[in-house]
Amino acid sequence: MNQAQEILQSLSEKFAGTASVKQVYGEPIQAGGRTVVPVARVQYFLGGGGGSGEHKGEHVERPLSGGGGGGGGWVKAAPAGALEISETGVRFIHFSDATRIAKLCIGGVTALLVLSRLLGRRR
To answer: Rounded distance, CA 118 to CA 123, Å?
Structure first.
């Protein structure tokens, strides 16, 4: 395994326990003959790299070598919904994210304004 793979492996092991459904919601809840199981969307973003090199120059008595590596990342967890389990079956209850919906609307309006401006200049 090369240095970059070792860095990513180490990071992924450290992040494995940092973002879980339990941290977003908690334990499943049982009440009234139903069990509600929280569902979360968890994303891991990892990056790493390494390198080494050797410089052999005319004015150097011995080759100069160096190397280095590093990595980093972050974890994002957000509520997605819940599973409701009862005697009649299982259903998924989706949670809406008002902020995300607002961002999508603003982005759509902005795209339409830019597009109409570009098309208006062509005429």
So the answer is: 9
The tokens for 10 are 């180490």
- What pLDDT, on the 0 to 100 scale, is given for residue 5? 72
Q: Name the strands in the sheet holding 29-31, side by side, starting at the edge strand that comes first in the sequence.
A: 29-31, 34-55, 64-86, 89-94
Dist. CA 21–CA 82, nearest whole Å: 11
Q: What is the pTM of this model?
A: 0.49
Taking a C-beta distance cutoff of 8 angstroms, is the pair 74, 42 a contact?
A: no
Identify whether the C-beta of residue 45 lies closer than 8 Å to the C-beta of residue 73: yes
Q: What is the pLDDT of residues 18-61, one digit of tens each?
A: 656 666 667 888 988 899 988 888 888 877 777 777 766 666 66
Residues 6+ apart with CB under 8 A from 65: 52, 53, 54, 55
